[in-house]
Q: What sequence folds into this?
């Protein structure tokens, strides 16, 4: 892979980054992504920003895979019927870029963002590793080593080939073991889980949310420990994503049950984020704030009413201590 610097370099393309200190700083400067609705409205612009970032680093393989993913998801939406399906992958890519630009190490930057873009193409569209190889070669990707690495990761992260294809693993645990054994898929899958948990609120019913989050927490500790042992240079990003997912699950609790306790303000939610990787994201792409806003509008009497909990003489802090480590 290219060994370009992680510090963001401005360019003279259609989307000028104007010397911003980082990709995320530039996104904030545009003021286009300050709420989830804004992100949906400005999705094409966000894709353009992503393309410029990839071109700036000469990440040809990742760009080809992003384009394939976008083409496959053209006109498709998430379950709300409004949000572009491809925002799933693009948001994860934004998070990943913020992680590496904030100093979290991964061994293969382009390899991981490639898997992030492509991780659902096997299961949703039936593309095989050989199909993916042929597509990359046809579109000018020349490094056989990089293609072979991608194929291995793509195979590891694909639970099945085609929506109606047979499951390739006996159960969730066997699948998680395969994913955590691959250097790039082990990171990409945690970003996928994090985005899935963020978007559960308001889409899935409460029993399905409880089921999904329980599975996630039950398997996460073993996955992080095993992947960190096998790929020790990446331990920090595994631990960061583990912390993020636990905080997202804690946020989901406010949707599963409404106790009358008001969810923490956005400033405190941002403060609660891991020190590297997820602070200062645009609010419309923020893992906790997007979910919190959905919860506020689900239970407005609790979370949007004036002077709620005014009789409680304590700051409504968002603390990790409220969330026991069910993953151990």
A:
């Amino acid at each position: 892979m290219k060994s370009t610097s992680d510090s963001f370099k401005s360019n003279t393309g259609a989307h000028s980054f104007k010397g911003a200190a980082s990709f995320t700083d530039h996104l904030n400067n545009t003021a286009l992504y300050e709420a989830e609705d804004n992100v949906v409205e400005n999705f094409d612009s966000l894709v353009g920003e992503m393309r410029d970032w990839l071109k700036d680093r000469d990440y040809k393989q990742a760009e080809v895979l992003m384009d394939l993913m976008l083409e496959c998801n053209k006109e498709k939406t998430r379950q709300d019927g409004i949000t572009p399906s491809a925002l799933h992958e693009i948001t994860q890519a934004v998070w990943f870029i913020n992680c590496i630009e904030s100093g979290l190490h991964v061994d293969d930057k382009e390899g991981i963002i490639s898997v992030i873009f492509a991780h659902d193409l096997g299961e949703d569209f039936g593309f095989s590793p050989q199909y993916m190889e042929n597509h990359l070669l046809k579109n000018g990707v020349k490094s056989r080593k990089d293609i072979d690495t991608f194929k291995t990761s793509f195979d590891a992260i694909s639970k099945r080939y085609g929506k109606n294809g047979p499951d390739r693993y006996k159960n969730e645990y066997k699948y998680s073991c395969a994913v955590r054994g691959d250097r790039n898929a082990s990171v990409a899958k945690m970003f996928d889980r994090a985005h899935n948990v963020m978007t559960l609120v308001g889409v899935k019913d409460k029993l399905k949310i409880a089921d999904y989050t329980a599975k996630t927490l039950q398997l996460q500790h073993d996955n992080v420990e095993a992947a960190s042992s096998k790929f020790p240079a990446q331990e920090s990003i595994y631990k960061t994503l583990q912390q993020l997912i636990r905080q997202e699950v804690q946020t989901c609790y406010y949707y599963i049950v409404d106790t009358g306790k008001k969810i923490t303000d956005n400033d405190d939610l941002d403060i609660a984020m891991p020190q590297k990787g997820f602070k200062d994201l645009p609010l419309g792409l923020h893992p906790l704030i997007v979910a919190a806003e959905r919860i506020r509008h689900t239970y407005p009497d609790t979370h949007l009413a004036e002077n709620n909990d005014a009789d409680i003489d304590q700051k409504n802090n968002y603390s990790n201590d409220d969330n026991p480590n069910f993953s151990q």
